[in-house]
Amino acid sequence: xxxxxxxxxxxxxxxxxxxxxxxxxxxxxxxxxxxxxxxxxxxxxx
Length: 46
What we know:
1 helix; mainly alpha; elongated; 39% helix
């Protein structure tokens, strides 16, 4: 998953790619629900 991770700590468990992707999608979903709708720019007068 991370090309820069050369070593791993012994005894520590790391998430699989599928688990990491699932967690990322859940975070995106939660962030979009919590974030307020973007304000619309006022229309320019001619």
